[in-house]
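Handoff note, outgoing to incoming analyst
You'll be picking up this chain. Sequence as last confirmed:
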Amino acid sequence: MTTSLPSIAILGAGSMGGAILAGLVADRSATSLTATNRSRAKAEAAAADGVRSIALEDEPGGNASAAAEADVVVVGVKPYMIADLLTEIGPSLRPGTIVVSLAVGTTCAAMEALLPESVAVARAMPNTPSHVGRGVTGVAGGSRATAEQVALAASVFEVVGEVLVVEEAQIDALSTISGSGPAYVFLLIEQLTGAAERMGFTPEQAATMVQETFAGASALLADAKEREPGIEPAELRRRVTSPRGTTERAVEVLQDAGLGAIFDRATAAAAARAAEIAAE
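Most recent structure output, in case you need it:
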């Protein structure tokens, strides 16, 4: 990424906040970077070249001081901690700052109610592949955010992968696909590995077959999309599935089981849980 980013503060540089911080450190495009963590040990772990890392146990007012110096404030704390944190940092924020929450279920309206009217808000839903620079992040702006501010928020997450700017009404739905999606993939890997072991392969052999097959299939899809823009996964599936062959028989079993309906039910359940979290 070549776009220069302004000063950024990450309040709660834990798992996901830490992934964003690492991406920003590697990208080296931010004017300044500040990160906060509750403990000294976590703050030391988050320290890197060009990063001001604050341990709140040593500097209780560290969140407010970090936010006061930032143009973009990324809030990486748990959903139940959001209200207290925004109330704490609100008076310190400069006009024009955009506050971006990573919390599931916390609406832009709820954040706006806790912050000065001169401050914009946005929601971002990154997923765990952000840790390896292959993330997908959904970004939605609140009612006070300009198009330029939403674009700025999106550019922060481009350091860890692809970004989709969506309406806030789509954020929870997006999180059921890209946010929860890695768990679905791991579950499929887990189940196919178990099937291989039940066929007599050792755990090591099963792991190699399944994990490399998933990695190879993803690489094959990426290569095909580069060589044949617009190609769909369904076409690659058809190319693997010889008429009247073994793969065709296996795919028929999966389709007869209603795999599409199962995923519809799973994503609906995730979306319902996000709505419950928002109401808590």
